[in-house]
Write a structure and sequence with these properties.
This protein is mainly beta and 153 residues long. 14% of the residues lie in helices and 48% in strands. It contains 1 helix and 12 strands, in the order ββββββββββββα. It has a 12-stranded antiparallel beta barrel with strand order 1-2-3-4-5-6-7-8-9-10-11-12. A hairpin with a 2-residue loop joins strand 6 and strand 7. The longest helix has 22 residues. It is globular and about 40 Å long.
Length: 153
């Protein structure tokens, strides 16, 4: 289980933990859809390529580790590719903020907010999915939550 919560009331950083051993602080960019986190002494970067494109990338030392493509402006859906496989991240309902991770048409994970008015939450993801990839997918969910908040506020 992956747990995440903002580091403060208006913070753009999130504490992310999986069990007792794996933890990091995920920092979201202010002006652009970017981010960064450290894990096991390595700094990972997260970015969106271009202003209009829907390409999102996880990088280590400038090398691409995973990527996601937002296939439609109108849908909350990403196609994710990484060494572990290909996945779809999608919102199963237009009425909720939850997301599910799908592999070959079957839901294998989920992201849920802890409540209606909080940015805290948890994710159930396959244990074999590396922590770095899990944080990358979490970043995509947090970006969608940020967009929805901005669009309704």
């Amino acid at each position: 289980m992956l747990h995440f919560e903002p580091t403060g009331i208006l913070a753009s950083s999130f504490r992310v933990t999986r069990g007792a051993r794996e933890k990091t602080t995920l920092s979201l960019g202010w002006l652009r859809e970017t981010g960064a986190f450290r894990h096991k002494g390595k700094r990972y970067t997260l970015d969106r390529t271009g202003w209009i494109s829907g390409d999102f990338t996880l990088r280590l030392d400038g090398r691409r580790l995973a990527g996601a493509v937002k296939t439609s402006v109108l849908r909350r859906r990403f196609e994710i590719s990484c060494p572990e496989g290909s996945y779809v991240l999608r919102a199963p309902s237009i009425l909720r903020r939850s997301y599910e991770l799908v592999e070959e048409g079957r839901a294998i994970g989920s992201f849920e907010p802890a409540g209606a008015f909080t940015r805290k939450g948890r994710a159930r993801l396959p244990r074999e999915l590396p922590f770095e990839t899990s944080v990358f997918i979490l970043w995509l969910v947090l970006l969608m939550w940020q967009r929805a908040e901005r669009d309704t506020g």
